[in-house]
Amino acid sequence: MGTHRTNLFGLDRAALVEHVGRHGAPAFHGGQIYRWLYARRVWDPGLWTDLPRALRERLLEDAAVETGSLGSRAAAKDGTVKYRAELAGGSSVESVYMEHSGRVTLCISSQVGCALDCRFCLTGKMGFVRHLSPGEIVGQVALIQRERRLESRPFNVVFMGMGEPLHNYDSVLAAFRILTDAEGFGLSRRRVTLSTAGLVPGIERLAAEARRPRLAVSLNATTDEVRDRIMPINRKYPIQRLMEACRGFAGASGERFTFEYVLLAGINDGMDDAARLASLARGLPVKVNLIPFNAVDGWLDYRPPARARVNALRDRLLELGTATSVRWSRGAEARAACGQLALLPPRQHAGGAVEAETS
């Protein structure tokens, strides 16, 4: 795409109205283009037959529809598929398709790399490269939707791939609006979940939105000493400050949210951790998802607790009155397990982003 040509994919309705206005076209043509791009997913302007021929010709001259493309694929026996999405703006990210008990979920990325450097997350080894645009975020959904022929099938979207979504707030929320617009992808907003490592200003900003995705907070420790060590963001926004933001979110939104808790053997998996976790959750409309760490030999030194330990922690939390489930890993054979998406050498790299939930 030449630098003089506008990429229409990823633009919202207002931006498309502005673009056609430069050609003297009425505003409703911008809405028509919006529907072609996102609801119908027809990306050749020459096929937008309800637009005047002269406008289509002008769009072919000065605009393009660049969605990116799907590159390499890696499949696991459980049906999980990890995709390398080649972005229209250059560089790549990893995205994941998973299906469990008839439910389809797409795990998508919001950044190339990540700046937060959580010690147990392989993406952090990449460092931060750049933010994704709304079109590059939505493009991952559109490309996998086409690849898997999901046009008539409901699916969920989780911002749990590469990157911290609230670090790229404006682009992520712009993509969310396209995904949940009735004239866009038409997803229910309750089918979209955003996972954050605890970027407090972003949580507070999200609480004030008129429409927002569901929230998942990656907590992973019950003391500042441990969370400082495994999640450097905690040094800026410690647990007490994070809990204040969570209470504010619950009060402003009236919505249930999730604490994600990656279990690291010998670090955050004690029964005293369970007691503190239950205390943090008390009084909040929150569910805890326990996530056994997915080992990454050669890259990360952590190990998951034994299965019996995981189950004992779950049972203790339930005894303490905390809604709790375990996310057992899916897609590890495809290097597609929770928190492990990264563009690193395949020989050493052991995984990427998703799990199925069990009670």
Structure commentary:
The strands form three sheets. Strands 3-4-5-6-9-10-11-12-13-14-15 form an eleven-stranded mixed sheet, covered by helices on one side. It has a two-stranded parallel sheet with strand order 1-2. It is 31% helix and 21% strand. Strand 3 and strand 4 form a beta hairpin. The protein folds into two domains: 59 residues, DNA polymerase, domain 1; 290 residues, TIM Barrel. The protein is of the alpha/beta class and 359 residues long. The chain is elongated and about 70 Å long. It has ten helices and 15 strands.
Q: What is the CA-atom radius of gyration, in angstroms?
A: 21 Å
For CATH, the homologous superfamily of the largest domain is named as Aldolase class I
- Strand order of the biggest β-sheet: 3-4-5-6-9-10-11-12-13-14-15
If you average the pLDDT, what whole number results?
90
End-to-end gap: 48 Å
CATH architecture of the largest domain: Alpha-Beta Barrel
Under the CATH scheme, which class of the largest domain? Alpha Beta
Helices and strands in order:
Layout (H helix, E strand, L loop, with lengths): L5 E2 L5 H9 L6 H12 L13 H10 E2 L4 E7 L5 E6 L5 E9 L2 E5 L3 E3 L14 E4 L2 H14 L8 E4 L9 H12 L11 E5 L3 H8 L6 E5 L5 H7 L8 H15 L3 E7 L7 H11 L4 E7 L14 H13 L4 E6 L25 E4 L1
Parallel strand pairs: 1-2, 6-9, 9-10, 10-11, 11-12, 12-13, 13-14
Antiparallel strand pairs: 3-4, 4-5, 5-6, 7-8, 14-15
Helix pairs in contact: 1-2, 4-5, 6-8, 9-10
